[in-house]
Amino acid sequence: MAAGPSAPGSKPVPAAKDSNCLAGLSFVFTGELSAFSREEATDLAKRFGGRVVSQPSSRTDYVVLGADAGPSKLAAIKKNNLKTLDEDGFLNLIATRVPDYTDDKLKKKIEKEQDAIRAAANELERREKEIEKKVKGKEKGKDQISNTVPLGSQLWVDRYSPHTLKEVCGNKGQIEKLQQWLNDWPSSLKSGFKKPGKNAMNTSRAVLITGPPGIGKTTAAHLCAKLAGFTPIELNASDARSKRLVENSTNVSNTSLDGWMHGTEATNAAGVKITDKSCLIMDEVDGMSAGDRGGVVALVALIRKTKIPIICIANDRGAQKLKPLIANAFNLPFRRPEAAAIRSRLLTIAFKEKMKVPANVIDQLVMGAQSDIRQVLNMLSTWKLSNNAIDFDQGKDLSKMNEKYTVLTPFDVTYKMLGPYMFSATARETLGDKMELYFHDPSFVPLFMQENYLKTQPSRIKNDAGPEKTLKHLELMDKAASSLSDGDLVDALIHGPEQHWSLMPLHAVCSTIRPASFLYGSGGGYGGQNPMSFPAWLGQNSKQSKLNRELMDMQARMRLKVSSDRHELRQSYIPALFPYVVKPLMDEGVSAVGTVITRMDDYFLNRDDWDTLVELGLDEYKDEVVLKKITPATKTGLTRKYNAADHPIAFHKATDLGKVPKKLAAQGPAPDLEEAP
Amino acid sequence: MSLWVDCYRPKSLDELHYHESLSARLRSLAASGDFPHMLFYGPSGAGKKTRIACTLKELFGKGVEKLKIDQRVFLTPSRRKLDVNVVQSNFHLEITPSEVGNYDRVVIQELLKEIAQTQQVDINARHRFKVVVINEADSLTRDAQAALRRTMEKYMSNMRIILCANSTSKLIAPIKSRCLLVRVAAPTEEEMVTVMKHVASRQNFRIEDESVVCEIARDAEGNLRKALLVFEALKMQTGSLNGPITIAKPDWETYCIKVGDMITQEQSPQRVMDVRTKLYELLSHCIPPTVILKTIAARVVEKVDESLKADIMHWAAVYEVRMRVGNKKIFHLEAWVVKVMSIYKHFFYGIDMGSFE
Ligand SMILES: Nc1ncnc2c1ncn2[C@@H]1O[C@H](COP(=O)(O)OP(=O)(O)OP(=O)(O)O)[C@@H](O)[C@H]1O
Ligand SMILES: Nc1ncnc2c1ncn2[C@@H]1O[C@H](COP(=O)(O)OP(=O)(O)OP(=O)(O)O)[C@@H](O)[C@H]1O
Ligand SMILES: [Mg+2]
Prior knowledge:
A: alpha/beta; B: Rossmann fold; binds adenosine-5'-triphosphate; binds magnesium ion
């Protein structure tokens, strides 16, 4: 096994014979290497043109094996009879391999790709020239002031916005459906939206496109509308839409939609002409001003009777306010396009801009931006201002810089923290990075840590065996648990009367980082044998407060008879009362109800207190155990008989008496504790 | 009928068993007309509240036995409703400020101000002042204690305060200095036996086997309430109260013992998590964390080698202190459990390896 002392940075990256030496190969990484972290290793593979996939399949060329490889991956290797490499083997491959450019297949493939890119770039060039000419012509003719900005000063995202459907990357199927629906619109309208059509879409008067930003939703909607012969009218979040605006802008309340159809032309509030060849695009519907449900409701009302197609676009399909819309429109979710689907488009644009950007850098950027094409274009165009080429490392930095700040869930943080990589010798995360993780959710992360810190197979003891391993494991657990205990003390200072917020970093260390530093390791993962779980503390804590409140109520009622406080009540009285107010019902059933109620009355206990008393039991008095031995008939007997009579009452609840609560002054500054008596 | 503990609770200083000299002192204090603020302290079930009630009766007469409960509601600045139960007679009232947690200071101030401003209406009252009994005084926040200090001086003319606590260690010095300290020590085993005999005679039965009551007294560890409750339970179970008997432990104690055994049976991450589940169960069922820790520790210590006992108790004390300061008790309970497991296992293997030599 490749165990032994892990030695970060102990091996240099070999000089490759060819900068694209891993081209055409796909890799899977599993387990931990000794000199490189997982991230560094995958980077290497990508840097030299290889592909890295997460799960091995029959098409995987190599699996790079480190220590503690995942069992599922090992199984897949066996099943598919895959080639494996250790760390040195992998480095050696980089140092020695030369892609077989003479291989016809590979050669042709590369050539074909480059031809396609060149052709597409030429097409872009040609189109721009044409537009420029047109603009000039218009200017000569002193037409209206053109709203076209000179191409050179346009943002890349606008300049290279797709003009044909072919140029839109990804989501082909969805786009085709949209196209079909728009093409069918006239006949759907004629049939009264009764014929479902090929995609079962033609009964809908509206479509709802949802998906993450920058993947071409708006673009696709406009293009499809234009190609189907419609004039898109777009309303988006920047037109502060309200219910009224939605109605006005479509003249729903003034002129009926039929008016637009039969009258020659109608104009909406925004001054756009509406004809039967208009298509309404409601962009960013989830941005309709917060709380303005009216907007969506008006939109739905509009959809119910519209005679022009309506395309709605939103980012978050799950948003509460979109509920009515989802029910009234055909849903077309858009996905993030795969890197492969975007690559050639971006390469084309880069080529056209005379930028040298290798394909693996493009992939890197796309990954970093989570397929947000808009963002990648913006990154490239800013880069172009100072550079004409971009290499792998620069690409990496660039996408790091632009990394969307995503908030990790406490699950993710805990998984990362306790996982085998964060503290391994090859890890590159600084203390600051680890603290960042804590700050994703400082109130929850520590709870998650406490819940899950014992679920790992600690990496620190993976080379030990027998009693020594057991003892070391317990020592690590001990250190982690006492650090968690420290963390709670710090937490008490932070949330105590003095609110020492400045202690947060210390809390991060005690509650999260130190415990993980002892016990990190494999096994705690989502699929591992001990999956992470949600902290039990929250549920237990609220259960405790509930029972405590009930116990306090009970104590208040018993107070006239009993001198004990609530703790003694729980610890001594309840076990002592049990044989008188609960046990008889278990042993004798309904016949005992009378004596039980007399006992309860002696102590001013009501029917709810009886439940509390049972609920508070543990062990052989545990409520489940006890209630199993009391028949439902007995229980209803108790309720009925109790309700049938009057009972002595210790006091009435203030709220029942209609007392008005007295407002307490704010706590004010704490009195000076050190002042002399 | 109520339980014996409540039935046969002494109602006046004369009826009180044991600590006779204390009773005499309280009697003369009540007669003197110069009644100070007082702090009654002593372990649970030693008879503090009983003694306070008797003293009040001595001060004001039978009227203090006519109790009613008045529930008051307060609204915090954050608009949370707080219920406060005030037990009162015409002459005194009793509050438990720990019911309102961190708001104890403002609630106490509000209530005391009110009382101080109303004069004694009963013209036949023997004293001009009213007495305010504050229960669980040792869980008053420091803020509340500090605020109480001024109040105790300011309203001396028409109010006396009696604090009731288990120990004085958590009360600030200025409070202690304003009170007459009254220690109510736990009764001895013989004293408890006497009380039980007295109860038996009131119940019209004779204790034939004295060893049984002695056993009960020993088991109660100075808690007379516990002794009387067990006494009655056993009588009900066995009828005759003739030995040999086994004193049934309350549900939570049995549960704690099981947890203690889990710790000594196996030491592993999984076992810690299983123990955690049980600890949660105890906590959520209103067993105070310190009681849990003490009971489990006692069981563990019973089971382990002599040489480990001191160490284990030391860590129990350390984590008990931590629990008092911290918020999430389970963190500290669990840290103790892990510590004990580690100590235990090291000892275990220490012996094993030694035997190989
Ligand atoms: N699938 C795509 N193919 C080609 N270019 C794209 C694609 N998606 C986005 N782009 C580029 O990004 C720009 C922005 O895309 P678009 O406005 O359609 O994004 P969107 O999905 O509507 O995002 P948002 O949800 O933020 O409104 C386009 O002008 C185009 O230059
Ligand atoms: N001096 C006494 N003589 C006889 N019985 C007594 C005496 N003192 C207490 N008891 C009995 O012990 C029981 C418990 O006493 P009490 O409630 O006063 O204890 P406490 O010290 O206030 O306990 P805690 O601190 O738990 O509130 C009483 O109900 C009563 O039956
Ligand atoms: Mg958009």
